[in-house]
C-alpha cells in the first residue's frame, strides 16, 4: 500500500489559523524583526514568505534589508538595538551571512529570549538539557509532523541523516527526549543504508537531492524530508519521493511538508517569546 502523505501545508495552516485568533484576541501584537544581508535569491524567497505569514497572522513585522558589504560591527549594533527594542519580541537573521561576518558571533549576539530561530548556544544548551525555551523551528516542525501520524515515538528506531547544529542535531535531541533510540548519520557514515533500513522513523536533512532511495527505507517507516534542493529550476527533497512512497508508511512531500511547518513553528516561537517577555516583566 502506498504511503500516506503528510500534508505539512494543511497542518501549518491550521496552526497559523489558531495563532491568528490568539493574536486577534490579545491586547499586544507580537513583533518580529527579520534581518537579511545581501541578495541571495533563496534567502529572499524564505524571508518574503516569513514576512507574509507573520503579517497574515496579525503580527508586526519589521524588515531590515542590508547591503552585502555591511561590516560585522554595524550588524552587531543593529542587533543590539533590536534586542533593546520593546516592540520587537523575535529576531531572525537569515543565514547564510557573507564571508566577512562571523555567523556564530552574530547568532549568539541575539538575546536568547528573542532568539525565535533557537540557534543561540544558550537555547541549544537548554534543548540539550531537556529544558527547552525556544527550540529551532525546523526541528520542531519535524517532530510535529511525526506526531501528526499518531505513531508512538517511544522505543522506535529513529535515524537522522545530517548533523548540522540547526537541523540534524536538534531533531536528534528532540527524538531522544521522546524516548526514541536515535542514530545520527552524516557525510562520513559508512554504509548509510545499513542504518536507514532499520529506521521506523527516518529524517533526511542532508541537502542532497534524492539521497534516500526506496531500497534504503524500511517498510511502513515514517519518512520526513527536510531537504530543499534546487535542481533544473525545481525544488526537490533529499528523498526519492515517487519511489519511496511505495514502501514508506507515511511521507512528507517537498514542497508542502517541512517548509510550511517551519514557518508556522517560527510564528509560534515569536508568540512564545512575547509571552516569555511579559512573564519576565511581571
Ligand atoms: P548542512 O549542509 O549544514 O548539513 C548537512 C548535513 O548532511 C551534514 O551534517 C552532512 O554531514 C550531512 N550529509 C551530507 N551529505 C551526506 C550524505 N551523502 N550522507 C549522509 N549525510 C550527509 O545543511 P542543513 O542546514 O542541516 O540543511 C539540510 C537540508 O535541509 C538542506 O537541504 C536545507 O536546505 C534544508 N533545510 C530545510 C528547512 C525547511 O524549512 N524545510 C530548514 C532548514 C534547512
Descriptive tags:
single chain, 282 residues, alpha/beta, Rossmann fold, 2 domains, six-stranded parallel beta sheet, three-stranded parallel beta sheet, 40% helix, globular, binds nicotinamide-adenine-dinucleotide
In short:
The protein is an alpha/beta fold and 282 residues long. It contains ten helices and eleven strands.
Question: Can you tell me about this structure?
Answer:
- Helix 6 crosses helix 7 and helix 6 crosses helix 10.
- The chain is an alpha/beta fold.
- It has two domains: 86 residues, Leucine Dehydrogenase, chain A, domain 1 (Rossmann fold, 3-Layer(aba) Sandwich), CATH 3.40.50.10860; 122 residues, Rossmann fold (3-Layer(aba) Sandwich), CATH 3.40.50.
- Strands 1-11-8-7-5-6 form a six-stranded parallel beta sheet.
- It has ten helices and eleven strands.
- The radius of gyration is 19 Å and the shape is globular.
- The structure holds nicotinamide-adenine-dinucleotide (NAD).
Amino acid at each position: 500500500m502506498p504511503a500516506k502523505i503528510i500534508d505539512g501545508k494543511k497542518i501549518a495552516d491550521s496552526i497559523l489559523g489558531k495563532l491568528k485568533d490568539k493574536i486577534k484576541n490579545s491586547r499586544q501584537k507580537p513583533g518580529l524583526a527579520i534581518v537579511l544581508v545581501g541578495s541571495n535569491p533563496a534567502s529572499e524567497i524564505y524571508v518574503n514568505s516569513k514576512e507574509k505569514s507573520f503579517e497574515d497572522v496579525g503580527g508586526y513585522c519589521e524588515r531590515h534589508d542590508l547591503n552585502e558589504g555591511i561590516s560585522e560591527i554595524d550588524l552587531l549594533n543593529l542587533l543590539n538595538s533590536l534586542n533593546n527594542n520593546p516592540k520587537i519580541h523575535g529576531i531572525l537573521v537569515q543565514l547564510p551571512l557573507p564571508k566577512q561576518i562571523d555567523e556564530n558571533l552574530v547568532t549568539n549576539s541575539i538575546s536568547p529570549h528573542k532568539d525565535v530561530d533557537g540557534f543561540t548556544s544558550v537555547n541549544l544548551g537548554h534543548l540539550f538539557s531537556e529544558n527547552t525555551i525556544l527550540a529551532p523551528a525546523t526541528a520542531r516542525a519535524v517532530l510535529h509532523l511525526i506526531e501528526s501520524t499518531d505513531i508512538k515515538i517511544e522505543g522506535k528506531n529513529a535515524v537522522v541523516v545530517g548533523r548540522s547544529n540547526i537541523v540534524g542535531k536538534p531533531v536528534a535531541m528532540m527524538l531522544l527526549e521522546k524516548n526514541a533510540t536515535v542514530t545520527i548519520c552524516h557525510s562520513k557514515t559508512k554504509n548509510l543504508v545499513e542504518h536507514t533500513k532499520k529506521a521506523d522513523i527516518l529524517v533526511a536533512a542532508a541537502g542532497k537531492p534524492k539521497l534516500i532511495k526506496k531500497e534504503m527505507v524500511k517498510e511502513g517507516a515514517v519518512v520526513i524530508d527536510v531537504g530543499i534542493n534546487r535542481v533544473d529550476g525545481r525544488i526537490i527533497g533529499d528523498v526519492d519521493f515517487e519511489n519511496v512512497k511505495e514502501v514508506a508508511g507515511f511521507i512528507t512531500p517537498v514542497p508542502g511538508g517541512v517548509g510550511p511547518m517551519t514557518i508556522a513553528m517560527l510564528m509560534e516561537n515569536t508568540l512564545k517569546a512575547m509571552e516569555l517577555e511579559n512573564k519576565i516583566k511581571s
